[in-house]
Amino acid sequence: MTEIPLQQHIAPSGEQMTVRDLASCPPPERWHDWVEYDAKAWPRKVERHYEIIPTVCFNCEAACGLLAYIDKETGRVKRFEGNPYHPGSRGRNCAKGPATINQVNDPERILYPLKRVGKRGEGKWVRTTWDEVLDTFASKIHAAIVEGRRNEVMYHVGRPGHDGYMERVLGAWGVDGHNSHTNVCSSSARFGYHIWCGIDRPSPDHANARFILLISSHLETGHYFNPQAQRIIEGKMKGAKLAVMDPRLSNTASMADYWLPTWPGSEAAVLLAMARVILVEKLYNREYLRRWVNWQEFLAASLPVPQTGFPNVEQTFDCFVELLIDLYDEYTPAFAAKESGLSEEIIVDIARQIGHAGTAFAAHTWRAATAGNLGGWQVSRALWFLSVLTGSIGTPGGTAPNAWNKFVPAPFRKPSPTEVWNELLFPHEYPLANYEMSILLPYFLREGRGKLAAYFTRVYNPVWTNPDGTSWIEALTNEQQIELHAALTPVWSETAWYADYVLPMGMGSERHDLMSQETHAARWIGFRQPVLRVYKERHGEPVTFTYQANPGEIWEEDEFWIELSWRIDPDGSLGIRTYFESPYHPGQKLTIEEYYRWMFENSVPGLSAAAAKENLTPLEYMRTYGAFEIPQEQAPVYTLNERELKAAELEGALVDERTGRIARNGTTIGVMIDGKACEGFPTPSRKLELYSSTLKDWGWPEYAIPGYTRSHVHRSAINHERGEYLLLPTFRLPTLIHTRSGNAKWLYEISNANPVWIHPGDAERIGVETGDLVRITTEIGYYVNRAWVTEGIRPGIVACSHHLGRWRLETGLGTDRWASALVSLGRDCDGIWRMRYVEGIRPFESDDPDSSRIFWREGGVHQNLTFAVHPDPVSGMHCWHQKVRAEPAHAGDRYGDVSVDTGKAYQVYQDWLAMSRPQRNRPDGLRRPLWMIRPYRPATSAFKRTS
Ligand code: SF4
After folding, report:
1. 601 C-alpha to ligand 1 centroid (Å)
2. Which of 59, 92, 217, 516 gets mutated to test ligand 1 (max ligand atoms within 8 A of its CB)?
3. CA gap 865, 874 in Å, rounded
4. Is residue 20 over pLDDT 50?
5. How far, in Å, CA of 116 to CA of 291, rounded?
C-alpha cells in the first residue's frame, strides 16, 4: 500500500507524518510532551502540549487500557484514548472508555464527602471531612471487633475493580464480611464451571478457534466485551465459524454464521443433545476423556439409566462410553428441538461442526441463559461438557479455566484467615452457593438472623440493581438493622440516597488498582493509576493523599482502607495495623505507592528484567506503560493440568492406588495420569468431574452428572392465550454500564430508552404497536413502558434491557440529570409501593453547555423493582427471567409507572427458600465442601459448625 503524505503534522523531529502515522498512537518516547494543533483554534495553528499517562478503564470488568492526555497548560485531562501497550485491549476501546472524560468532568458529580442530616432517605446532606468519616467508622468497627461482633461489619461490592485488595483488608480485620453483587450476575455460570474443574470462569482462545459457540451477545456487550470481541472477529477472519445462542437478534447474533434463538431455559437440553451426537458419532476425543475425566468414579457410582435401571457394567473405559450414551439417550435432537424451538437439523449440524473443530472449539457463556433460569448453572455445565468431549480445555483455540489466563500478584504479608463464619453471607440453606446470598440480605435482616453495625456499599446500587429494590429501601432505612452505612461511589445512585455517608471515589483515572482479566490466551496485569496525581508528582508537586490531586476531595478506596485500618487499631494491639505498615520502613504507615512497588518488585515474573532493559524500576515501568504481559516461558497458559509435579513438590507425598490422587500432608496436590504425576485440576479427584460426588453428597444426587433442569419459565408454564409471556430482562446495551453511566453524557445521547421488544405476531395478539404504552405485570407488581415491535425477538418472549430507568427524588440532587427522571416514590395506604414520573429528563443549566442541549425526555423505565427474588436452590443465583402478563396500558397508566407489593415479594422469597435443601446436621459438621472456593475464604476451622 502506498502511504499518502498529508499536511505536516506536528512532530518533535519535524518529519512529515503519514496516514499510517496519524492512525497510530503517539510513541511512548514522546508521551512526556506530545504536541498537537488545537482543533478549535483552526484555521490558526495553535500548539497544545500534552503529557500522556496510562491508566485502566473502570467502566466494565474488561479493564482495557486508556491513555490520559493531560493538557500542560490547564493541568486537566483533555481526553482518553486506547493504550496500545495494554495486552488485552491493544489500543482499542468501546464507547465507554473514551466517555470516561464525561464522567471526570460531569457537573453533577459528588466532589466532597457528605453526611446525612435528616432522616435516612430524606435527602438532606452536609459536607463533612474525611477525618470525621474515618473516625466515625473506625470507632464503630473497633467496638464490633473487640466486643466479638465481627459479623456485623460488612463490605458489599458491586464493581470490584481490583484483585485481592479488599480480601486482604477484611482478612486483616478478621471479619467474614465480603459481600458481592455476584448472585445477580454470574453465580450460576460460575457454579457450572466450578463443579467440573474447580475454577469458576472460562477463558476462550477465540483468535485460534475453528468453531466458536457463544451463549450471550459477546461481540456487542458480553463478558470482556472489547478484548474478546476483537479476538472473535480475528478468529472469524481466519475461518472460524460462529454460532450464537440467544433468543434476541443481538448485534452479535447478526454477525454470526448461525443464530440459534432457543426458548430461554432450554439451552442445556440443546447442548446435551449435541453432546449425544458427538458421543454416538464417535467425534469425541477418546484419549482426552480416558486420561482426564473421572470416569472410574462415575462407573463406581452405578448411576441408574432411565428406563433400564441400574446397569451392571465392567469398570472399563469402553463401558463408560457406552453407559454415557445410554444415560444421555433421552437427549435426542427431536427432544431438544421440542424444548428449544430449533430444528433438529441445525442441532445435529452444529454438533458435528463442534466435533470436527476438536481441540479448537471455543465456547463461552456468562450471565444470559445461566442468569435467567432456574438451574441456569446446568447450561454452563453442559457447555463445558462439549469442551471436555472435544478435549479443548486449555488448548490453542479451546477454552481454558480462567485462572490459567490471569495473574494476581501476591502482596506483602498475608493476614491469617478469620475463624468466624457469617451466616448472613453463606446460610445453611445454600451450602453450595457459588457466591454470597447477597440478594437475601434484606429478608435475613428482617428475620433477625443478624444486624450490621457498619455497612459499606462500594460501587453497588442494590435498590436499583437487585430484584425487589423496595425491600432494600425498607432495610436501608431501618437503623436497627443497619446502624451505619457508607456508600463509596463515583456517582450518585438510588442506594446512596439512603446512606448515612456518601463518599466520593475516583473514576478509572483517579485511583489505583491492579487488574488482570482472562481476555485471551495470555497473562497480563494492568495498572490503574490516578493520572493527575502522577502528573503532579512528576512535576515536583508532592501529594500525600490522592484526593489532593483529584477534583474536589474525591478519594480512592485503597488509601481510604489504609487510613481506616490505622484508626481501627491505632496502637497495633489488635494485630491489624501491622498489615498496613510499610514493607520498606518498619513501623511507618504504608503508602499506596509502596503497596504496588513491593508487588511489582517481588511478585510479577519478568517485570524487573523488562524494566531494567529500559533503565526503569518495576514501578516506573508500570507507571510509564500501564500494563505488562508475563512472558509465557515464566507463566505458560495452555494445558496446565498436564504440568508434571517437580521432585520437591512430591517429597513426602503419597499416591492413592485406586484413584491415582497424590496427597501431601492430607492435601491433594495432583493425580497420576499414565504413570506421570500431573498437577491436574483443583477438584477433589484432580480430574474433570463429569460425576460430582459433591452434588450427590450435599443433597442433590439427581444432579450428579450434567443434566437439564426445566426452568421456572419453561414453555409449558406460559399460556399466550391468557396474555402470558416470558420476560427476558437481562440483556445489556453496549453503551451503558448497569448503574453508573448516568454521568456520561455521550453514552446517554446514544442510549436513553429501554422499550419492550415484542414480536409482530404477539403485538397483534396483545393489540399494541411500536410506541404504545404496555403494562407488564409480574408476580409482585407491574411497570408501564413503550412497546417496540420487532422480528428480532422470538415469538412468545418479550424483552427489556435492564440498563435504563434511573430515577431521583429531588429536583437538583441525586442520580445525574443526564440520565434520571424526577419521580415520586412511596407507599400507599394499602402498603403498595408506587413510583410515578413527576418530570422526565430535561435540559439543565450547568458549567457544561451540553446540559442545556439535552433532547431526550424519557429515560427508560425501571423494571427490577417489580421482580421478586428467585434464588436458585443450588447455585444461589437470582433467576432473572419472569413469567409476566403483557397487555395494553390501563386507563390512567403513565409511562414509567411502577407498582410493587413487598408483602407478596416476601412470600415469593419464602416459596423459593423452601426449594433449598438445608445441610445443617451433616455428620462431618461442615457448612460447605472444603474444596469449593469462596471469594473471601475463612480458616478451615470456620467451615465446621460448632453448634
Ligand atoms: S470494554 Fe469495558 S473496559 Fe474496555 S473500554 Fe469498554 S467499558 Fe472500558
Report:
1. 28
2. 59
3. 24
4. no
5. 62
